[in-house]
Amino acid sequence: MNLKPRRMTAALTALLLSFAAPAAQPTLTVYTYDSFTSDWGPGPKVKQAFEARCDCELELVGLEDGVSILNRIRLEGENTRADLLLGIDTNLTAEARATGLFEAHGITFDNSTLPRPWRDELFLPYDYGYFAFVYNRERLDEPPMSLHQLVDDNNGPTLLIQDPRTSTPGLGLLLWVRKVYGDRAGEAWAKLAPRIVTVSKGWSEAYGLFLKGEADMVLSYTTSPAYHMIAENDSRFAAARFEEGHYQQIEVAGMLAGSGQKRLARDFLRFMVSEEFQQIIPTTNWMFPAALANSKLPAEFSQLVDPSPSLLFDDEEVMKRRGAWIDEWLEVMSR
Amino acid sequence: MNPRALPAGLVLGLLAILVVAPLAGLLSLGGLQLNDPRELQFWHSAYIQRVLVFSLWQALLSTICSVLPAILVARSLALQPVFPLRALLLRLFALPLVVPSVVAVMAMVSVYGAGGWIPLGRSLYGINGILLAHVFFNLPLAVRLLLPYWQAIPRHHWQLAAQLGMNAGQRWRLLEWPALREGLPGVLLLVFMLCLVSFAVVLTLGGGPRSTTLEVAIYQSLRFDFNPSRAVALALLQLALCVVVATLTQRLQRLPEVEIGLDPAPVGIRPVFSTFNLVLIALAAIYVGMPLLSMLIDALSGPWFEVLTETRLWQSIANTLIIGLSAALLSVAAGWFLLRYSASLAFEGRGLAARWIELAGSVVYVVPPLVIGTGMFVLLSSWADVFGWVYPIVIAVNALMGLPFVIRCLGPPMRQNHARYERLCRSLALAGWNRFRYLEWPLLRRPLGLAAGLVAALAMGDLGVIALFGTPESATLSLLIYQQLGAYLVSEATVTALMLLGVCLAAFWLLERGIGGGDRA
Predict the structure, then answer these.
(1) Which residues of B touch A165 (CB under 8 A)?
(2) Torsion of CA B405, B407, B408, B413, to 10 degrees
(3) H-helix segments, B93-226
(4) Which end of chain B has less neighbouring CB within 10 Å, N or C?
(5) What fold does the segment set B5-514 form as a domain?
């Protein structure tokens, strides 16, 4: 997820900085996703801010998405040149832990603003968000007030969603429905299916189709309307608040046990939960920072829906049961 | 030994290394766990059967819907060799190949979606949408590939047909169809392969998981499931499927019973103004043009200043051109050596061996770049810094993916050239560089130019491998488009997409002109 076009000055600055790096400095290599490293993502600002204090070079390697980051580490194993991973979410942390390649971060995360206590010793969160159905106010007057209402109303809004086999939000919705409906999730999907216009490969396709007016609602994030308000000055878009609560996605970073730069890696993790880094997140990654007081968020963020209670499965449970849940979803959706 | 065997053997060896080694690399991670109950369950599930049946069904249907109309349109274009903007139209027909799938989906929706020019509503999503998109991609490609077969019919045949007072039906049966029959099976196979591996288009316009292709299953097993051995097995299954279809289409093939001319002359009949032909051409132009036009319209209102002043855009354009042109040259060179050998085999009466060589060069297309790229990664990462290898790998894999296009464009003319001039060359001792310079280059440069243009377009629109390795410096235009779309920057992405089309058109023009030596096609 990401941000706003940056202008020429920023690009030139980045260019000049890249010439300025002397060779003798230590390099900290971070594998992340490419929307983090892109010009309009947090990457350039984070790199500049961290390098100003670390006397090192921060190398951000942008891969396709969180799943690619994890798979890259699985492929490289102990030969990896990454010191840190940044950008996997809580649906993947159990699998990342199972690789045995990570080391405890050892950081007291006492300034957390996450809506739940954080106890993971290996992974440290940097931001979080909630899945939500986003709609256009001019097109949909009365959005459903709950997931149950959305599911039960046969004449309800049409939907665009993503495929849980290929997309993180798609998997998020699957878990959301499972959390609310438990073992009756299949029945809920059967009722929803006729109103699902299409199931796309990734977030971009679904959101693009939504902006073209192909359906009433699209699965996205509660923060999506903030992008339209801040970057486009457009307040037509809103996320529907569901009474049952919204499924949460927490994005984390972790350091590798085989890293030769552990001191720097820990410095980076401390920097990551500091105010300087956290302030970059809202309008570049369009997520909620994991350690920043609400009062320091952009004003538009206060207009976003209240997603409480936040819903989340234990990561071990996701790892164990995801396959069966996806199979059930496929079965219902293919009828 | 045939002196042409060595370079061809080298190419085949490289092909094998490029395909087999990565598959082996992936298997080395886990091995085929065919006894694992979960694997057995997967292979016996209704899911995999459904996926297989659907993959085949949509690919066959898409192929028929693309190639049959393409025959009519190519015929009209051949019989109507002069009309305004004809050259431009033919160049536009190479463009859909470069359109990244997510952009194509948006363009199809602009035309046929709820708020589109021809609103189909919900009925767009399903087999309709899949067919509309696949015909958009493949009809123009098939037209470009089929058109040369009409031009290969010698002028005096047309004259004879006219003297004998043949009507259109008789000309078709006695002249055109026999000439077409040599190339049609290859074109059918190529389009079938392109539709078989289609993924984002099928999933998104297909309306949901009912429309799941093997390619989705491969992607899923290599990503979320991280089950490399299953991905390899699925990729091999896809390959096997293609070999079966290839052997079936080859039964259609007959070497031409009519004498084939290689002089690059337009069809030897006087252009007759035919309303029917012009209407057909206009319909095809409108069909292919509408989605492209929608991209243009979307882009015109886009934030040009912001996009054009980003240094990353220019870097991406440079990267895209380097990758596209290098892959095109590499692919054409590899295809050349392969085909030179297979043509000489065919000349010696070993047609079956010749066909298998061409088939081997073609079907590797359906081994997904994600599988090849990941496998290469496994192999390379243990002894090299993979980031230094991004360009060579991306270029090599794209050249590999372009090989079936080269074989399609270049195979038949090279075979004919060989059959016609081999004896003469032997008696004149014309060989090596001189033979290339005085005989092969002048007669084959047009199909060479077309082949290079198509491969360049394909490589420039490709996303598979570069996304897998991606580092910030190696972005291409298509990757940039995906990144912009992933960051809410929809209008920026429309501008970048138009830039991609422009760069592709320029590269195509350059290759067709520079290599092909002229506008006439």
Answers:
(1) 209, 216, 219-220, 224
(2) 140
(3) 101-112, 127-151, 155-163, 168-171, 177-180, 184-196, 200-205, 214-222
(4) N
(5) MetI-like fold (1.10.3720)
- State how far Cα A272 lies from the chain centre: 16
CB A231 within 8 A of CB B235: no
Contact yes or no for A146/A244 (Cβ under 8 A): yes
A332 in reach of chain B (CB within 8 A): no
- Tell if the CB–CB gap between A2 and B487 is shorter than 8 Å: yes
Which has the closest alpha carbon to A105: A120, A122, A127? A122
Of B178, B158, B179, the residue nearest B168 (C-alpha)? B158
Inter-chain CB proximity B210 and A211 less than 8 Å: no
Fold annotation for A8-128+248-302: D-Maltodextrin-Binding Protein; domain 2 (3.40.190)
- Hey, what CATH topology would domain A129-247+309-333 get? D-Maltodextrin-Binding Protein; domain 2 (3.40.190)
- CA diameter of chain B: 72
Is the Cβ of A205 closer than 8 Å to some Cβ of chain B? yes
Joined together, the tokens standing for residue A148 give: 């149950």
Q: What type of residue is B269?
A: I
pTM: 0.88
Select from A302, A330, A86 the least CA-distant residue to A185: A330
Classify residue B18 as left (phi > 0), alpha (psi -120 to 50) or beta.
alpha
Residues 6+ apart with CB under 8 A from B391: B322, B323, B474
Please tell me what DSSP assigns to residue B173. I
pLDDT in tens, chain B (521 residues): 677 888 888 888 888 888 888 888 888 887 666 667 777 777 878 888 889 999 999 999 999 999 999 999 999 998 888 788 888 898 889 889 888 888 888 899 999 998 889 988 888 999 999 999 999 999 999 999 999 888 878 888 888 888 888 888 888 888 888 888 888 988 999 999 999 988 888 888 988 888 889 988 888 888 888 888 888 989 999 999 998 988 888 777 765 544 555 554 555 555 566 888 889 999 999 999 999 999 999 899 888 888 888 878 888 899 899 999 999 999 999 999 999 888 888 888 888 888 888 888 888 888 888 888 888 888 887 777 777 778 888 898 899 999 999 998 898 888 888 888 888 888 888 888 888 888 888 888 888 998 999 999 888 888 767 777 766 566 788 888 888 888 888 889 999 999 999 998 888 888 888 887 754 44
Best residue in B466, B488, B492 for a mutation probing chain A (most A CBs within 10 Å): B488
Across the interface, whether the CB atoms of B310 and A8 are under 8 A apart is answered yes
Please name the helix (run of DSSP H) or strand (run of DSSP E) that holds residue B424, with its range, or none: helix B390-428
Measured CA to CA in angstroms, residue B256 lies from B81, B143, B153, B260, B346 at distances of 23, 19, 10, 8, 13
AA identity, residue A43: G
